[in-house]
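User: Sequence in, structure out. Go.
Assistant: Echoing your sequence, followed by the structure tokens.
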Amino acid sequence: MNRNLRVYTSGKLDGGKGIDNFFRKHSVTTWFIIVNVVAFIMATFLMGVIGEEFISWIAIQPNAFFSGMVWTLLTSMFMHGNFSHLLVNMVSLFFIGNFVEKLIGRKRFFWLYMASGIFAGLFFVFLAYFFGITEWGVKIFGSPEVFAVGASGAIFALGGLLAVLTPRLKVYVFFILPMQMWLAIVVLLGVLWVASISAGLPFGNTAHLGGLLVGLGYGFYLKKKYKRKTQMIAKYFSG
């Protein structure tokens, strides 16, 4: 009887570890990539079945958000406009996300990604809704009627964090131009904003900025709280 109890208990414990190991087998970054890819496939299928009006239920739009469609703040984080949009963001997330996750840990990484993505969306809808009412307002802040999707707000937060913790880390902007991390973030944000204003390209500049601010803020928080550790990290990744 005691032997059967031990076998039963052991099986239950092993099962619990198995479930935990199932999720811990991959990084949080990998899980975010999987969710983004699956969401893109599902959205593409549903748009084919329901029609393009389906986008209004998952993409964030300032006017719709203030009319009550607040859930799009979350769904828009995991949606992308087309395959190239998804590919660029997921490649960036793979390299930057895995590095940041190793630096700050799984839990901190998860909450930073989620919080920055939500804040980026809020930053976009508020600025577009209240300031995108003139020609230049639309160019700078976006139109309150435009739909937005993508993970780039959260990705910019990760870049902002690295700009504080590893400012001299060498990275490649647009995968070709080597720069220190702090400069790369400034250049990337500036180039995208100028291109958006001058050529009318649909970049979510205010969302990028919103996410970046969260990353910078969290980076300075960690730098102050863990002064010695962050100094060692900055020195180790100084190029």
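User: And one key feature?
Assistant: The domain at 9-236 is CATH 1.20.1540.10 (Rhomboid-like fold).
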